[in-house]
Write a structure and sequence with these properties.
188 residues, alpha+beta, DNA Binding (I), subunit A, four-stranded mixed beta sheet, 5 helices
Length: 188
């Protein structure tokens, strides 16, 4: 939970950034802007303020509550397929070794080793813990007597967004909770 004493310093007042449809730009990492960026975007009329902290910033002739939730005025379309990065790979595989299920000491493994012509692509790279990666070595899973829990595949941005919702951050300000749907059952 976001501790009330933390808002005494503006540095501890990030703004949750929502798209124009009022959904977060991303869940993991959570789309947050520093308070200075949020205020600049307000003055440039690029965002609407949805909620604010109790904390204010002042100048000699102006004062303003620091925004805690802002919504972009123009919709930012997400690309259909995310960039191939280590973080996105781990997120696709839910930060879990695809051989043993371990969640610590993670790295990535080429299913078909590079020495055998394997490429660094979504379809040929899986999350692996260091012990499994060492055990497999430069062999295929079949040669090493290992089984992948799921076949590597290129995810969509929507799939990564859904996976990211399972990893909520430790500190959520109260004003953010209405905009983040962490597996909450909606009541009709």
């Amino acid at each position: 939970m976001y501790h009330p004493d933390r808002i005494h310093h503006p540095e501890n007042c990030p703004a949750l950034v929502l798209n124009a449809d009022y959904t977060p730009l991303s869940y993991y990492p959570l789309s947050l802007w520093p308070w200075q960026t949020a205020i600049k975007a307000v003055f440039l009329e690029r965002v609407d303020i949805v909620a604010s902290y109790e904390r204010e910033v002042h100048s000699p002739s102006f004062h303003m509550a620091i925004p805690s939730v802002i919504a972009l005025k123009q919709y930012v379309r997400q690309s259909e397929h995310p960039a191939f990065t280590r973080f996105n790979l781990f997120l696709r595989d839910r930060f879990t070794c695809q051989y043993c299920g371990n969640t610590r000491d993670l790295t990535f493994d080429h299913v078909v080793p590079r020495r055998a012509g394997g490429r660094t692509t979504w379809e040929n790279v899986a999350t692996a813990c260091s012990p499994c990666n060492l055990r497999k070595g430069g062999r295929t899973p079949h040669e090493a007597g290992m089984v992948l829990r799921q076949k590597p595949a290129r995810p969509t941005s929507w799939q990564l967004l859904e996976h990211g919702r399972a990893f909520p951050p430790n500190h959520l300000h109260q004003s953010w909770r209405d905009w983040l749907y962490w597996d909450v059952e909606l009541v009709a």
